[in-house]
Specification:
Layout: H1 17-31, H2 43-50, H3 54-66, E1 70-71, E2 79-80, H4 90-110, H5 115-130
Helix pairs in contact: 1-3, 2-3
Amino acid sequence: MSSIDLFSIATGSSEPIYRQLIEQVRRFVAGGQLRAGDELPSVRELSQALALNPMTVSKAFSQLEAQGVLERRRGLAMVVAPQHARAQPAAERAELLRPTLERAAAEASQLELSAAQALALFKTILREGNNP
């Protein structure tokens, strides 16, 4: 599987596309799917594969570089920065999930779903995701 295949964009999401890209790269690095030295697709390749404006991809990559997640190499593809040689500890990876779960909890509350109902749905979704 190429690194382009890792990415997916939710066009109907309220989260800006560049933020979706940033969060996906951060999760891939935290989870160990992308490690130090792994090359990312070029801005052109990724923007064509996902049908995005190249400036959107460039903005995401630039912010990831500023955050120390990616490293720019003149004339070459961007790579995962050296400090990301292995997956982050589970507690740190879980913190990356917090904003998504906070939004989901707020939506469950707005829909007047109980915690038990929301957790049951989450468990079902997790099981479905592990059994394609």
